[in-house]
Amino acid sequence: MANIKSQIKRNRQNDKRRLRNRVYRGEARIAVKNARGAFDENAPESKEALLSAISALDKAAEKGVLHKNNVARRKSRLMKAFSTVKPVEARVEEPQTEAPVEAVAEPKKKAAPRKTAAAAPKAAKKAKAAKAEEPKAAKKAKAAKAEEPKAEKAKAKSTATRKKAPAKK
Fold this sequence. Notes:
Layout: H1 5-41, H2 46-62, H3 68-84, H4 115-161
Helix pairs in contact: 1-2, 2-3
């Protein structure tokens, strides 16, 4: 146990950092392990596992948990292992035998649309458009009414301030 005050504080800081860094180091370790497992199984999701492992390693390097050269070495080894993985062959599905022509049912014909049914949506659209226009027209009228008193006040003010000069004799 340290006796010096600064060393006691340094130990506390180291413990906090160790616990914080443990998360990033563990995530990187798990991601690399999962990626290697996917490579061994020749799983189709091995590329996603590789990308998540690289991301976890980069995060650890960014946080200063792992040295950048260490991360570079690990990523290089992962990429080398990934390049040896054989690509997964696409599953070839056998074509299904088609049903005989007689067995296929003909699609039902749609009934001709009624004139009233077709006209109703159009009428509704026109009514909706007219309602949308009403507020705009009302706003314009309201703005015009608001402008009239201002214009009259301004005119009255200008005439009041301009008095005729007295005539010279």
